[in-house]
Design a protein that fits this description.
Layout lengths: L1 H6 L1 H21 L15 E3 L6 H16 L10 E4 L2 E4 L1
Antiparallel strand pairs: 1-3, 2-3
Length: 90
Amino acid sequence: MVRFFINRPIVAMVISILMVIIGLVAMVQLPIALYPNIAPPEILLTARYPGADAVTLEQSVATPIEQQMSGVDKMLYMYSLNQAAGSQMQ
């Protein structure tokens, strides 16, 4: 069988090109649902409290929001940043 393709390189090339074309057609027709999720969903929440310091923001804004967000299904992690300008949760 190997000798057949050695003696007929054009046949080997045509078969190779056909395999590549069939693979490309199959890839284009692959439904999006079958692609893996690359990045987890992300929620970014920004809250502003003019005139408040970081401690006040944490106690009156960030902590209640974090408690409510902790019930979200399939949440991997939560990150919170409190500054004088506002609070950010991710």
